[in-house]
Amino acid sequence: MNLLKNFKDPALAQKLAAAIADVVGDWTFSIMEVCGGQTHTIYKYRLREMLPPNLRLVSGPGCPVCVTPIEYIDKAVFLGLEKGASIHTFGDLVRVPGTAMNLEQAAAEGADIQPVYSPFQAIIAAKENPDRQVVFLGIGFETTLPGIGLVIQEARKSGLKNFSVLLSAKRVPPVLDALLAGGKAGIDGFITPGHVTAIIGTKAYDNLCKRYNVPMVVGGFEPLDLLAAIHLLSLEMVTNGSGNRNAYSRVVSHEGNLKAQAVLEELFEEKDAELRGLGTIANAGYGIREAYAEFDADRTFDIVTDSREPPGCICGEILCGTQQPTDCPLFGKTCTPDSPVGACMVSNEGACNAAFLYA
Ligand code: SF4
After folding, report:
1. Whose CA is closest to 100, among 85, 80, 125, 115?
2. ipTM over 0.95
């Protein structure tokens, strides 16, 4: 606890901010923080206000709830209401709007929606209710996927026939590749996500830095973690550098977590994926391998949806870094955390949610 308190030290933060201003001078740069957790810290601790105005911070697509397509919510609602499956999900998904309703509203209509802290709770429910289909909603980036892989392995070991995962898993490097290839938002440097990179290692960005001549620095989630990452990025940007550096070395290594990577390799295969606002990106997702097809809800259920994005929501543009939350005409009016129109207002990793709470 004390250790983390040190990473919030205001005097050290001021020193780092001054060092950043010294390095940046009159240059104008845009930096994207990829992860929604980092966005939350930037708003909460008002880091933008500590930095020179010619250094622009842009929120990126690393909020898992936000990039999950609306069709996914519609599928989960369909499974709960039409197939009578017991839906187990992390809590921040239950209020994400679907086309007709969210999961909270589906529960009011009679669906069995169970918020959980761990996917293993879904396994326990499946064991205790052998006559009921239990579906775990597996969304997220590389951080959460190893845990989902472990529960599928456990389901296989236990011989479960009534457990499956509705998967919508994303991979960060291809998403950054697509952003850079499209030249979107004119980003000069990236703060790569701490938790994801703890799994995949900084090695995952080596090629991107070289190919696009762009610097990347992995950052943590405390104010000093992020300021240190911005300082390293600034040093790279003023020299036109393309270094792939680490400002979160207490958690992240170049190689990443090899055990977690082995689980990903055994259970999942890369596939094209749709991300809200970014469209379909080659190899940006994971699917469940054929060998584990019996645990893939997309294969075991016949799912029918008719999905449409909510009118007026510019979540997609915000996730690309081309618009800010306050650019949305619905922000703070018809769209608030109590009554969200789009996914970016729901999750506490969403840019609209953070802007509403702290800006
Ligand atoms: Fe969508 Fe609401 Fe954000 Fe506007 S404020 S972009 S409606 S989530």
Report:
1. 80
2. yes
